[in-house]
Automatic annotation (TrEMBL):
<dbReference type="InterPro" id="IPR010331">
    <property type="entry name" value="ExoD"/>
</dbReference>
<keyword id="KW-0472">Membrane</keyword>
<keyword id="KW-0812">Transmembrane</keyword>
<keyword id="KW-1133">Transmembrane helix</keyword>
<feature type="transmembrane region" description="Helical">
    <location>
        <begin position="140"/>
        <end position="158"/>
    </location>
</feature>
<feature type="transmembrane region" description="Helical">
    <location>
        <begin position="49"/>
        <end position="67"/>
    </location>
</feature>
<feature type="transmembrane region" description="Helical">
    <location>
        <begin position="165"/>
        <end position="187"/>
    </location>
</feature>
<protein>
    <submittedName>
        <fullName>Uncharacterized conserved protein</fullName>
    </submittedName>
</protein>
<feature type="transmembrane region" description="Helical">
    <location>
        <begin position="111"/>
        <end position="134"/>
    </location>
</feature>
<dbReference type="Pfam" id="PF06055">
    <property type="entry name" value="ExoD"/>
</dbReference>
Length: 195
């Protein structure tokens, strides 16, 4: 099933509220990939603090588990028991679907070894670096390239498209350079002001 189909199926789960644990269970072997996409999506638009920070921290938590080779993501029981209102989930999926279906037109299984079991720890490292970049990204717009990169890597994992994963890594490198440039400008300005 494609990413858009998985998200539509999630939005169609029964109940007024859907527990995070139910969502993770429904994702099965694609849980990591979809979690990465879901954590990247909010950062593809200008978002106020602390959204990039929270997404970055949770993403880093997920990435460390990928890095250590866990087959399925572990989340604390307190988080698994938390639930999302059906209207909010449906609205978020509806917003994401146009972009996802557009990307899916160009995506197909290619360079599948980049999404294979042996590549997951390496991708965990890539996502961890992007997550750390999100944590320190410039407010409002600094997280956009990193959010886009995270989504592309996650989509590449779901679609088993190594080309998308590579594009995501390249976009992430650009995003990290922009964040580093922003941080350098801030520290230079502070240095000149006080020294």
């Amino acid at each position: 099933m494609r990413t858009s189909g998985l998200l539509t199926a999630l939005a169609g789960l029964p109940g007024e509220r859907i527990a995070v644990g139910t969502i993770v269970a429904a994702l099965q072997d694609r849980a990591y990939a979809l979690l990465v996409v879901l954590l990247g999506l909010p950062n593809c638009l200008p978002m106020p603090p602390p959204i990039p920070l929270v997404c970055g921290l949770v993403l880093a938590f997920v990435a460390v588990q990928m890095l250590t080779g866990r087959r399925m993501p572990w989340l604390p029981q307190a988080l698994l028991k938390r639930s999302i209102g059906k209207p909010e989930l449906t609205r978020a999926v509806a917003r994401a679907l146009p972009a996802l279906t557009w990307l899916e037109r160009f995506s197909r299984p290619r360079l599948t070894m980049l999404g294979g079991a042996y590549a997951i720890p390496v991708l965990g490292l890539v996502i961890l670096i992007l997550a750390l970049g999100l944590i320190v990204a410039a407010p409002f717009i600094g997280q956009i390239p990193l959010g886009l990169a995270v989504c592309l890597v996650g989509l590449g994992l779901v679609e088993r498209d190594g080309v998308l994963i590579i594009i995501g890594a390249v976009v992430g490198a650009v995003g990290l350079l922009l964040s580093a440039g922003f941080a350098y400008a801030i520290f230079s300005g502070i240095h000149e002001l006080f020294f």
